Amino acid sequence: xxxxxxxxxxxxxxxxxxxxxxxxxxxxxxxxxxxxxxxxxxxxxxxxxxxxxxxxxxxxxxxxxxxxxxxxxxxxxxxxxxxxxxxxxxxxxxxxxxxxxxxxxxxxxxxxxxxxxxxxxxxxxxxxxxxxxxxxxxxxxxxxxxxxxxxxxxxxxxxxxxxxxxxxxxxxxxxxxxxxxxxxxxxxxxxxxxxxx
Length: 197
Fold this sequence. Notes:
197 residues, single chain, 4-stranded antiparallel β-sheet
């Protein structure tokens, strides 16, 4: 039995992963990169450790040092058109995407194996600047199942279902710079926390 069922064209398919090239034009891509570079970005923090990638978030803030989940700075105006495009691609309403994480990966930066925090549900990422590979793994007896999805500049991906909840994902450190904007909806858990705050 194959690990992953093929799609209509015979290529392997990871259930819950959707993607599309050219969500934005090259001019829009450059404007987004310029806007990201104009932000006050900080090294990613995880339990006292500083990562190489530089980030800031809008809408909601998840603190990896103390696991707190709090209301953050509203999404800036320049992100709203892209949020609408990302939501349309994923079949969601723009207002469903209440969180945005903006990241710059300088040379040598990547992101390790992880699943997004359970306060979030849908994960929609827009990749900018240079191509990358989104890697997936799922533990099984004796090792891991693995899958890889190319991320072209200006492309978008959507994680839901099995790809979101059963598989970890990562991006290996790259020699070329890359930028990304990740939109997330809140899960039932996230909504419960947000309603209580």
